[in-house]
Design brief:
The complex is a heterodimer of chains A (605) and B (181). With 605 residues, chain A is an alpha/beta fold. Chain A is built from 25 helices and 16 strands. Chain A is globular, with a radius of gyration of 25 Å. Chain A starts with a helix and ends in a 9-residue tail after the last helix. Chain B contains seven helices and seven strands. Chain B is globular and about 55 Å long. The chains are: A alpha/beta (605), B alpha/beta (181). The complex binds flavin mononucleotide (FMN), iron/sulfur cluster (2 copies) and FE2/S2 (inorganic) cluster.
Chain lengths: 605, 181
């Protein structure tokens, strides 16, 4: 075996103490160093970590940022999600193809540059956007694409492609990103200014039970999508037996159209980390993990710096100031490009170094989470709200918004509107007001809650954004009247087909069948009963899938059928003959006719 | 009033589903009280001359002749029922779908381990149906109204389903009849 490869892998494994639960980090590091995690590297990793080779392979083959085949020194990943498509990503793609002389999924013959597609990278308000290794490039055009390739060929340094920095901490020396925050409306809870340590000191002056009671009194509910009451989750975790407990912050933000956590991580990291310490104090944990999506790797150095700074100030680490000093530290776990890893049990699998397979529930993470210990998993925004509750009081928080949905909600708005960006608005705000604020002049449809959310039309614009009405993890995409409604639906279904972990048949196969049927309809080859088929199959998938991905994946079809049924009905027609319009007899027979050198006898009689 | 007619066919299947139809035993006597068999391997009627109430289809669609038969069933039957896994999904025969057609023929007629074919010819009489690029489930080729899963569905399943549709009742089979593990 190649000695330098062995050496490199062994060094990397040593950095992680040859701990098999850090396999994802090891594989990421090997990928970064060697350009891929090939057969020899997988063998070496398995040897060093003392695990089976198949465990390494199942992990490496799972994540889209890891590859068993060699990749270029630099990988360009262009977002091909719906918003980017609307903003002209196909022109950018053409320019990349032409300038590089390769197609997507290929590497230049000199092995230097690879070109790939990727789903939403959380830059929808500045689309088209791409990742070049860890560097984010926004507002792309075909000119920009040509320039990027020329510059890269000269210096091969992605960071040098960034010529100007975005606002706020995007210009921080540890970030240096061209990303813009686009904070259009800062509210009182998450995006208001922070006095560091304030929330933490107030919380630590209470007993853990009082801390939990305060969060319950505020009636805080999870901001990550499911809306579970946060105080109750903390209480369960506190009450569960375990040698150790953990607090995990879910910063995977993989739901297409969502980018509000990115802005929080850029501008309110201190508040977030204080929220994690408070949660740790409340449940009796000593360790916190921030699970940061691979796409946001450009924020990592900055976030590490914020953590260091907190350690220096005694807000993190050993003996954190308080009534009774306690220990709590936070590490950052990088994701590696997988949507299902945002699902809390898959996220924990990933933190444990495994492929991101969801786990069967119960037991819930609060009972058996990370390394089978009681674990709190909360969204970035939830933890910020929790911290602010201690600074301003639970009463203050509960007063904002309707009774069942107290507080504010960060919305990441993109698509056909003049002011895309992040809005912190009181819960309960009407969709019509939101559309007004973001300058959506001609809205036909709104996709609320991302791909797994729902598509609503004008009839629903008077409804409100809240847990009891239109619930959302924060994504809001606007589609104007000039858009074909079925295009985003198809895009979202392609996304689910790609991101399904494959464990259950209804999700793995069902979504593919839904997509095929939708494509048939969009090609004008659908029949009226296809609509009924979509509905029936959707219901089966929702009922029979194991995790939230499969349970929500038919939503684009279900909700668009509800709001825009005509769009489907206009595309289908009764077939003229007995054969289905989608059955292409000519194509089905072509190969046999070629081999036999004759046409069909029976069909030509 | 004359009895309703049923037609049956075996396309790319093993005839097991037809055996299961016959497996209804003495109920076959009740069945012929209810219906007349029209085009079917059971009575060897080759062409449709009358309209049928129900067509039972065994097997998937593997060649041009299957397409022709299925088309004529759709044109001549009020209701088509896909009987068995092959008709519903393609099943065992569709294992060839991953292999290009030329390789399939090559393996079957030229280079397979048990092949003795000194002339090295792939049969190509005009009477021999042409294979499709893959085996299709019936429902991808024509509209199918009902599906009876199983390999084969049991005689009871087929019987219960037939009696229900012939009496114009909804096709709701008890769980035991469509459970296969
Ligand atoms: C497929 C899938 C993806 C998810 N992605 C995220 C995500 O990116 N961020 C997040 O906070 N929650 C995500 N969730 C929800 C989490 O499972 C979990 O409910 C949430 O992190 C809990 O935090 P909260 O109570 O603070 O909202 C996802 C759920 C599913 C089913
Ligand atoms: S529903 Fe889909 S993503 Fe979830 S466990 Fe099943 S196959 Fe995996
Ligand atoms: S379903 Fe089974 S019994 Fe019926 S034709 Fe196919 S292989 Fe034979
Ligand atoms: S960055 Fe492309 S859709 Fe979000």
């Amino acid at each position: 075996m190649d000695e330098s490869l062995e050496q490199a892998v062994s060094e990397i494994c040593d950095q992680y103490n040859n701990d098999p639960t850090r396999l994802v980090d090891v594989a990421r590091a090997v990928q970064a160093r060697l350009g891929h995690v090939g057969n020899a590297a997988m063998d070496a990793i398995a040897g060093n970590l003392g695990i089976h080779r198949v465990e390494v392979e199942s992990c490496v083959s799972f994540y889209s940022f890891l590859s068993t085949e060699p990749k270029g020194e630099v990988v360009i990943r262009l977002c091909d999600d719906i918003i980017d498509e609307m903003k002209g990503s196909s022109r950018v793609a053409r320019a990349f193809r032409k300038e590089l002389g390769i197609d997507f999924g290929e590497t230049t013959p000199d092995g230097r540059i690879s070109l790939e597609w990727t789903p939403c990278i959380g830059m929808c308000d500045q689309a088209p956007a791409a990742l070049v290794n860890d560097v984010v490039l926004t507002w792309l055009s075909s000119d920009a694409a040509r320039r990027i390739v020329r510059e890269l060929r000269e210096h091969m340094d992605p960071q040098k492609l960034v010529h100007s920095f975005g606002d706020g901490n995007n210009a921080h020396e540890l970030v240096r990103a061209m990303v813009d925050n686009n904070i259009r409306k800062a509210g009182p809870v998450v995006l208001a200014p922070v006095t560091q340590g304030d929330a933490l000191h107030k919380a630590l002056s209470m007993s853990p039970a009082e801390v939990i009671r305060e969060v319950k009194t505020a009636r805080l509910r999870g901001r990550g999508g499911a809306g579970f009451p946060t105080g109750m989750k903390w209480d369960f975790t506190r009450g569960s037996d375990g040698d150790r407990k953990y607090v995990v912050c879910n910063a995977d933000e993989g739901e297409p159209g969502t980018f509000k956590d990115r802005v929080i991580l850029t501008e309110r990291a201190e508040l977030l980390f204080e929220g994690m310490v408070i949660a740790g104090y409340a449940v009796g944990a000593e360790t916190g993990i921030l699970y940061l999506r691979g796409e946001y790797a450009y924020l990592r150095a900055y976030l590490e710096h914020v953590l260091d700074d907190m350690r220096e100030k005694g807000l993190l680490g050993k003996g954190i100031c308080g009534r009774q000093p306690f220990d709590f530290d936070i590490r950052i776990q990088m994701g590696a490009g997988s949507y299902v890893c945002g699902e809390e049990t898959a996220l924990l699998s990933s933190c444990e170094g495994k492929r991101g397979d969801p786990k069967t529930r119960p037991p819930f993470p609060a009972q058996k989470g990370y390394l089978a210990q009681p674990t709190v998993v909360n969204n970035v925004e939830t933890l910020c709200c929790a911290a602010r509750i201690f600074e301003k009081g639970s009463g203050w928080f509960a007063e904002i918004g309707p009774h069942g949905s107290p507080g504010t909600k960060l919305l990441s708005i993109s698509g056909d509107c003049s002011k895309p960006g992040v809005y912190e608005l009181p819960m309960g705000v009407s969709l019509a007001d939101v559309l007004d604020l973001c300058g959506a002049r001609d809205p036909k449809a709104v996709q609320i809650g991302g791909a797994s959310g729902r598509m609503v039309g004008e009839d629903d614009f008077e409804r409100s954004v809240s847990y009891d009405d239109l619930a959302t993890g924060g994504a809001l995409m606007v589609f104007s009247h000039k858009r074909d409604i079925l295009k985003p639906v198809r895009k979202f279904m392609e996304f689910f087909v790609e991101e399904s972990c494959g464990y259950c048949t209804p999700c793995r196969v069902g979504n593919k069948l839904l997509l095929q049927c939708l494509e048939r309809i969009m090609a004008g080859k659908g029949v009226p009963e296809d609509i009924e088929y979509l509905e029936r199959l959707s219901e089966n998938i929702v009922t029979a899938s194991r995790c939230g991905l499969g349970q929500t994946s038919p939503n684009p079809i279900r909700t668009s059928l509800k709001s825009f049924r005509v769009a489907y009905e206009d595309m289908v027609q009764e077939p003229e003959g007995a054969l289905r319009p989608s059955f292409d007899l000519g194509a089905a027979l072509a190969e046999a006719e070629k081999i036999a050198g004759r046409g069909s006898t029976i069909l030509n009689e | 009033m004359s009895k309703p007619k049923i037609a049956t066919t075996s396309m790319c299947g093993c005839f097991g589903c037809h055996m299961s139809i016959l497996d209804i035993d003495e109920r076959i006597l009740d069945l012929i009280e209810l219906v007349d068999f029209h085009k079917s391997p059971v009575d060897d009627i080759k062409e449709f001359t009358d309209r049928c109430a129900v067509g039972l289809i065994e097997g998937g669609v593997s060649n041009d002749e299957n397409v022709h038969v299925l088309q004529s069933f759709r044109e001549n039957c009020d209701m088509l029922i896909a009987v068995g896994g092959c008709a519903i999904n393609g099943d065992i025969p569709s294992m060839r779908n991953k292999v290009p057609l030329r390789e399939c023929l090559d393996e079957a007629y030229l280079h397979g381990p048990t092949v003795h074919n000194p002339d090295g010819l792939i049969p190509n009489d005009p009477e021999i149906p042409l294979l499709l690029d893959r085996v299709y489930p019936c429902n991808e080729v024509v509209k199918i109204d009902a599906f009876l899963p199983g390999c084969p569905p049991s005689a009871d399943t087929i019987w219960t389903a037939l009696v229900a549709v012939l009496n114009g009742e909804p096709l709701e089979l008890p769980y035991e009849l469509i459970k296969y593990d």
